[in-house]
Amino acid sequence: MANDIRVCDKCKHTQLKSIVPKLQKLAPDAEIRVGCKSYCGPCARYAFIFINGRYIKAVNEDEAIEKVRPYIKK
Length: 74
What we know:
The protein has 74 residues and is α+β, with helices and mostly antiparallel strands. The protein has three helices and four strands, in the order E-H-E-H-E-E-H.
């Protein structure tokens, strides 16, 4: 089963040009969707990634990527 990864294109704490390639490298089989996730409160304060049904938040993009690793289906 492929990983379902979603990122917000309006999040001020991540850059789509850098986060999407990092996620693709981490989970090549993933379907990465980009768009608003209606998670605006936390999105304004943290970087976040929605992966396989879970919201993962962190102070910055790189920390969020590290926190996502355990939730990637192999």
